[in-house]
Specification:
With 204 residues, the protein is mainly α. It contains 8 helices and 7 strands.
């Protein structure tokens, strides 16, 4: 117990420490179930963090998208002609229209692809779970795309903005959006936002 509490303190993030200790606990239990040990080891966990209840109003969402779309990269104190946050604006649109988690959006292809979720632009359907992927607690059911979002996705594909993935930056699929999203939210005067709050917003 003392070792786990010291780890939580050293880790700095209670939520991350809890998640990692849950993994450790699961590994120990698996080890025991496989008959590799007969010792019962308890892994005490810190209390769960208070759930985030923040969501965006319509005006805040509009302000965020407007900033991300208009933003120009700054170099040596001067704005360039490079719009370096438009891929984040596209991510925000998909998240707000569908309520999909960030990882599922960033991992989705623009057409049927082995091992990935994908959008069917002809049928207007978002297969958020890859074919053959096992269902988990964080469910990713197939959904019909809203007409307005489908029009955006078709245009992005037609213009070559989305060549293989829904969200791309410099022609490459975006793996993680957290840092770019945080920078964009700060720039829009909405500090402290995280991508998951877009899911809250869609539901609300």
């Amino acid at each position: 117990g003392a070792l786990c509490r010291a780890y939580v303190k050293q880790r700095g993030s209670i939520s991350m420490a809890r998640r990692e200790l849950e993994d450790l606990r699961a590994a120990i239990r698996h080890h025991r179930r496989e008959g590799l040990s007969d010792i019962i080891v308890e892994v005490p966990l810190p209390e769960k963090s208070v759930p985030r209840e923040r969501w965006l109003t319509r005006s805040e969402a509009a302000r965020l998208i407007w900033h991300l779309w208009r933003y120009r990269e700054v170099q040596k104190g001067k704005a360039t002609g490079r719009h370096s946050r438009r891929h984040v604006a596209r991510f925000v649109l998909v998240a707000l229209y569908t309520g999909t988690r960030a990882r599922a959006i960033c991992g989705a292809a623009i057409r049927p692809t082995v091992g990935q979720g994908f959008v069917d632009l002809k049928a207007g359907v978002f297969y958020r779970r890859a074919l053959g992927e096992r269902e988990t607690k964080k469910r990713k059911p197939t959904i019909r795309l809203p007409k307005r979002l489908l029009a955006h996705l078709r245009r992005w594909e037609r213009l070559g903005i989305s060549k293989s993935a829904i969200i791309e930056w410099n022609g490459q699929a975006v793996g993680r959006i957290n840092k770019a999203f945080a920078a964009g939210a700060d720039g829009a005067g909405l500090p402290g936002l995280v991508p998951h709050m877009l899911r809250h917003t869609a539901v609300t």
